Amino acid sequence: MKSGSKNRPLTHTDIRPGLVNTAMAKGEGLFWVMPVEKVASQICAAIRKRKSKVYVTKRWHVLAIINKNLPFTLYKRM
Question: What is the pLDDT of residue 53?
């Protein structure tokens, strides 16, 4: 499917944000809350680069990799 006058294919960007300093993320002792401006800048850069998936901010990507590789038995609680 073509888009606009540049005839480029459409790109879907999956944005996976961490905690952003908004009214929704207020609370005591929140871990790695990021300023809105930094998050917005990284989102815009990812869209411009036509990335398919981006973790915002980049430190959340490290946590996602760790989480993905943890054994399922750590999640299972009876």
Answer: 92
pTM of this prediction exceeds 0.70:
no
Distance of CA 41 to the CA centre of its chain: 12
The predicted pLDDT at position 4 comes to 53
Q: How far is CA 31 from CA 20, 21, 26, in A?
A: 10, 11, 11
Long-range Cβ contact pairs of 36-42 (< 8 A, separation 24 or more): none
State the DSSP H helix or E strand holding residue 55, giving kind and residue range, or none if neither: strand 53-56
- Residue 37 DSSP one-character state: H
The helix/strand/coil state of 71 is coil
Q: Is the peptide bond before 13 cis (omega within 30 degrees of 0)?
A: no
CA 17, distance to chain mean position in Å, is 3
